[in-house]
Records
---
Amino acid sequence: MGVLNLTEDSFSDGGRWLDATAAIAQARRMIDEGADLIDLGAESTRPGAPPVAPEVETGRLLPVLHALADCGRPLSVDTRKPAVMRAVLATGLADMINDVAGFATPEAIEAVRDSQAACCVMHMQGDPLTMQQSPVYREVVGDVRQWLAARTTALQHAGVDRARIVIDPGIGFGKTVAHNLALIARLPELLADGLPVLIGVSRKSMIGAITGRDLEQRLPGSLAAMLAAVARGARIVRVHDVAATRDALAVWAAVEAATHE
Ligand code: HH2
């Protein structure tokens, strides 16, 4: 999953793709590099990010969704606002709604219920404004798993087919480095519920904390974390650097294939 942030302030690429023409070119570049799906977001969720009005978010998303309608890849929309979910689903062009708030309100569930779109249910503790201040868990992997199970059950009770649901532990969303590492290390426990797991580690502060690298130098660390997650069963990886991710996955998969020969 290639990330395309149509924002001014995303932590890693804010401002680069705010212009629709540049955004569309970047999406096409990611597809050429091997992206299987594109995730479009128009509100940053980095720690401390201010909220964006729904009209602004929709206004950024719609032209790019329309321009990519024929791109041959599913399009995911990263939003936590029911009004934005409704607006993009009404176009028929959004194949997935990626909600970093995990469809935690009845309005969010209502917005996706009658569509055919896939739903990515991500775990976040708190809100982007405050989530990194002092995240606390009883036991992080168990707590996240339980929360995701409750959210997916609520979606199913509302009529969302289980086959539409993907879960995501939400690396960096109300979590310390130790919490993030435990969630990656013990990812097989999240697989136990039988739903595909999506994970996003690309360029995140966890990589900076471990390597001491600034944002633009976090690719090797991001690839290592991505492979660690894939080796433990992650099915979709949300990344900024598609070509490098493809190479890393190809080499890893070749070794795996030889292992099982
Ligand atoms: N991470 C970010 C945003 N959306 N969605 C899912 N499902 N999983 C993630 O890990 C995830 C996500 C944060 O990364 P980015 O989009 O690059 O930055 P920003 O939120 O600042 O736009």
Note: The beta strands are 2-5, 38-41, 75-78, 96-99, 118-122, 165-168, 198-199, 236-237.
---
Amino acid sequence: MANFKFDIQSIFTEPIVRVSSNLLPHTFRGDRRRALDISSKMSQIIDHMGELSAVAQKLSKPVTSSQKLRMVENQTVYVMADINGCDGDVVIGLLKVGAKNLYLFDNVGDTRKVDQAPCILDFYIHETRQRTGLGKRIFDFMLAEENWIPVKCTVDRPSEKLLKFLKKYYGLETIIPQTNKFVLYEGFFEKDGTKDNTQCSFYLKIWHCVYLEVTQSA
Ligand code: ACO
């Protein structure tokens, strides 16, 4: 877990806070002076956790930094802390998500432009706390806040641990192959529980071919 020289209790009035480009937790209340103080502290927290995440994933540079977050409007970082826990006040993880316009292959290999596709961009729980259910806790918090469902999320270069995590908790297993770095799962293109048009037209095409074969050979 990550310790900071400053008091983090005033930042984490709740165990998980949502942070966007203003670098303030969603729970923030206060004047401009206090906002500057809290955003500066949050900036240090995000930078440090982003670096730890990069090290854990063996990346050459962090995916998450306060500077990057400040510059984009449609990304959100969820940060989790343990206040008054067995290790004192510590920050234990982060999850960065955003919406992106992507060109993706669907189930039958046709290209689709998906506007504002939900994306999991960076996810990290401190090594000392992994596999204790905290990843699930922050992920579920994020899903509720964003109003997303797991099968509709794309994942940016998932690690083996994240692939196992998504399979275990959300049953995500069958990947729709892409040529870019994003991973998405069977069901991504389905609309509200019904098979999407592409899949229907795929089966219609097969049925049509079978029909022609049968009628021509008769
Ligand atoms: N080996 C295999 N599976 C793992 C491992 C591991 N070392 N760690 C977590 N998992 C998966 C398993 O399914 C595990 O269930 P199990 O213990 O029954 O096998 C499950 O996750 C545990 O669930 P949680 O405890 O809720 O998850 P955790 O708190 O460990 O957080 C996370 C998951 C974020 C992937 C964490 O392991 C981590 O930070 N890993 C290092 C960084 C990383 O790989 N991040 C994802 C990068 S890709 C991206 O961000 C888009």
Note: Helices lie at 32-56, 66-71, 134-146, 160-170, 197-217.
---
Amino acid sequence: MLKGKTALVTGASRGIGREIALTLAEHGANVAVFYAGNRDLAEEVCALAEQHGVSAKSFQCDVSSFEESKSAVEEALQCFGGIDILVNNAGITKDRLILQMTPEEFERVLDVNLKGAFYMTKHLFPHFMRKKSGKIVNVSSVSGLFGNIGQANYAASKAGLIALTKTTARELAGRGVCCNAVAPGFIDTDMTAAMPEAARKAALESVPLKRMGTPKEVAQVVAFLASDASSYITGEVIRIDGGLCM
Ligand code: NAI
């Protein structure tokens, strides 16, 4: 499905990002494994990806830094000779009620989740324009669609990511580049493991499918959006939430 393509995935050393990198590799794409800090985990993802007969290389990159992300993207472009797929997956939470949330907590989440995706998109924009093809997939959240108590910063960043997705889709449509978003619900990763047990239980009760999603179930939709199978879809947001927000 993705043979001969090269994908860049941010936050790819663990969780959903790791599974996205491995699933794209399984479908034949080379992968640029962008990671924030854990080189060993990123190298492990590269080794597993290479078992699918593709090339994989890790690049250290804090997406919230304009300069750092710019040079990492340039390095990846040079290493692979081009990028066909960008997946903006890196994200953090700093949950607290608005009453207690500090301006720093609000800003940091916006810096990583929203500005980071903007920077990555901006760095690859000229490359995609020249190539006249490409796929961008942004990992948003149902919090960005519906809001969530204790997540003013996170929900705002993920809603902003949806607006960024639609704007990118419009700006690049004329060049044959598609940009879409996925909005996962409760997915079983370190991020949700950090939720208090009572909150986890209550959350699961509200999911019609009565279970958490797996990173693979997100990665499969990302692979579809990264492939030609979705060639007439752009500016779309696909919920992957077990029916939570229907
Ligand atoms: P995770 O915490 O396991 O993974 C997040 C990844 O982002 C990590 O690899 C981390 O190193 C990376 N990251 C954090 N700050 C970074 C920075 N400044 N620069 C570069 N990379 C950075 O969480 P998970 O669950 O795998 O989340 C992946 C994405 O999916 C996030 O954008 C998250 O908001 C989104 N998501 C997750 C849901 C869930 O239930 N787990 C639900 C909806 C969305």
Note: The chain has nine helices and seven strands.
---
Amino acid sequence: MRIDIITVVPELLVSPLNESILRRAQEGGFVEIKIHNLRDYTDDKRRTVDDYPFGGEAGMVMKIEPVYRCITALQSERHYDEVIFTSPDGVPYNQHEANRLSTLENIIILCGHYKGIDYRIREHLITREISIGDYVLTGGELAAAIITDSVVRLLPGAIGDEASALTDCFQDNLLAPPIYTRPADFNGWKVPQVLMSGNFAEIERWQEEQAYERTKSLRPDLLEE
Ligand code: ADE
């Protein structure tokens, strides 16, 4: 898979995308992540990427030309399955969408910035608008990092234990069951006996029950879906 991220603040993406699993996934050839500085697609000396809004509202607007140049340059090199825009008024992001994106070959993520982006970009160039939650960030870079992180860890081979991504929270619309490691007794706080019984059928039944009970009490909305 290849992920191209377009941003006016590339520095914000360096650390989140170059440590731990994401670094290893790139080194192992499971994903290619390319960051593009939108200012490299400007044609004026000051490398301007924003301008005042028509209609005289407060705040600056991301200009159409650099975005158009960058996206069409990428599209002239390969087909992209989605051109994503990160924005608080996008479709709420969840595990189903992460799963879907992880099956695609090439995606572009355009990070929103400033007060907003010239709406013609959204109308003509963007195929999917994603919000990571009902709150407003200073820019879309952290949202792009979250989307990339959640997608890359699903790519076959990206995390060592392949079964692990399939048993994550939210796969099957259930929260994960509690998990423990040694010591079995810490200051009298004991690990549930069943996990040490060696009876795998019983352990699996217990885990399913726990996943259901935790979901029912913490996220009943997931059971309604
Ligand atoms: N940019 C600013 N806030 C955002 C959000 N909640 N989701 C995605 N992109 C954003």
Note: Residues 31 and 148 are 10 Å apart (CA to CA).
